[in-house]
Amino acid sequence: MGCSSCGTATGGKPNGCKSNGGCSTGGCNRMNTYDWLRNLPMANTEDQCNVVEISFSKGTRKDFYRNTTLQLFEKGDLVTVEGVSGFDVGEISLTGEIVRLQMKKYGVKEENPDMKKVLRIATERDLDQRRINKDREPEAVIRSRAIAKQLNLNMKISQVEMQADGRKATFFYIADGRVDFRELIKVYAQEFKVKVEMRQIGARQEAGKVGGIGSCGRELCCSTWLTDFKSVNTTVARYQNLSINQTKLSGQCGRLKCCLNYELDTYLDALQGFPNDCDHLQVAKGNAFLIKKDIFKNLMWYSLPDSNKQYPLTIERVRKIKSQNRQNIVPEELEPVEVTSSKPVEVEPEFVDVVGQISLRSLERADRKKRQQKKNQQQQQRSQATGQKQHPKQQQPAKQPPQPQQKKSEGGRPQHSRHKPNRHKQPEGKKQGGTDA
User: Fold this and answer.
1) Which of 67, 68, 331, 336 has the fewest CB atoms within 10 Å, i.e. the most exposed one?
2) Taking Cα atoms as reference points, which of 359, 302, 358, 370 lies closest to residue 333?
3) Would strands 195-200 and 168-174 be described as parallel, antiparallel, or unpaired?
4) What stretches of 24-170 show up as alpha helix (H) in DSSP?
5) CATH of domain 135-201
6) Average pLDDT, the chain
7) H or E element, residue 432
8) What is residue 276's DSSP assignment?
9) How does pLDDT run across 134-158, given as a tens digit for each residue?
């Protein structure tokens, strides 16, 4: 979830705060906490909290550090803090009074003398050194997995986190049981030239570090806001009338989804009005077995052995049949109720004939032309059919009128007699065909 200023990306990077995924408002960061006490005025500056919360690796790890400097830090500032035999670089995620509430939540005391300190604002040299060591992490994951496989250890290296100065590396691993990695630590220290720390995590913590999109279309809860992982079993699914399908009930970590616990309390409160000892009822057709409980309609569904049909019964009817069975009375029928759906029935749109409502002159002319051609063809076919039924004498073609005979010239070619008008008038005193003597 990002802020509105980071909504439009140009060139693959978000606009607005330009933090490229670590939004200064906290909306783009993982495991963020909204500082709703940020604008709270302080009456006494001496009572102000001098502890700040700093996040590492884009919010996957957070810790509290004491601010012994005289500088006031704001959320989103990159600072250099104390590390193991060196220093580390992190981003300030919370400041002020909200930090005290977070410390109370995680059971951290503000007066703890072992709390590490903030050294200074991160310099360019610190940031360059952190960038160089962070680029070593993907290569270290591949190499560390190969070493663990060579030593035949039943474990999986999930993530490697390097300290900013490159003197320490934390290896997060997953294992089903205890792992003797004493030899592994020696090999890692010799291979990577760092101080090695091994930390075991579960499958849910690994999914939170990797991140992803769940089946609901949102980011995983473990990678955005969920920090406490409670146990989830198949009984939770049965209370909610969900089919026990491992593929649908499992998350990306391979375990049951954490969101199955979200509505469990609501279902437990609603099921208190249902009788508990009514798993089967005796009727004349046989024993009716309980299939499911519908908390939305307050119905209990039963099935008989002679058919696969399910019969919905009200809670009052179930209690009445159960009381009759205790008195050795077997009712004739279950008397199911008729379930009507409150969802409105969608009416299919009827066919509407729009022929003639829309007219175009070009289409009308083409249509008239086609009708005229069809009419002419029908007339020709009708005339041919009537002409074949006439007498053969009547079918003879009409005699053509005699044509005028053509005169033949001396050469044998026909000479056409054509009257050519005199275009030029003859002068008076001259006659055609002769001259004056």
Assistant:
1) 68
2) 302
3) parallel
4) 97-106, 124-134, 137-150
5) 3.30.300.20
6) 80
7) none
8) S
9) 999 999 999 999 999 999 999 999 9
Q: What is the C-alpha separation between 103 and 97, in angstroms, rounded?
A: 10
User: Is residue 274 classed exposed, middle or buried when 0-12, 13-18 and 19+ CB atoms within 10 A define those classes?
Assistant: middle
- Which amino acid, residue 19? S
45-65 exposure pattern, b = at least 16 Cβ within 10 A, e = fewer:
eeeebebbbbbbbebbebbbb
Helix (H) or strand (E) holding 325: helix 315-326
Tell me phi and psi for residue 136, to 5 degrees. Answer: -85, -15
Task: Say how many Å lie between the first and final Cα of the chain, rounded.
Answer: 126
pLDDT digits (tens, 9 = 90+) for 60-89: 888 999 998 878 888 889 999 998 888 999
C-alpha 98 chain-centroid distance:
34
Which has the closest alpha carbon to 158: 212, 194, 199, 130?
199
Torsion sign over Cα 249, 201, 166, 225: positive
Question: 201 or 7: which carries more pLDDT confidence?
Answer: 201
pLDDT digits (tens, 9 = 90+) for 355-372: 666 666 777 788 888 999
Task: Give which of 288, 285, 294 is closest to 315, Cα–Cα.
Answer: 294
Task: Find residue 205's DSSP bridge partners.
Answer: none
Decide if pLDDT at 170 tops 90. Answer: yes
Sheet containing 286-294: which strands, arranged edge to edge? 280-283, 286-294, 299-303, 310-314
Residues 205, 175: contact at Cβ < 8 Å? no
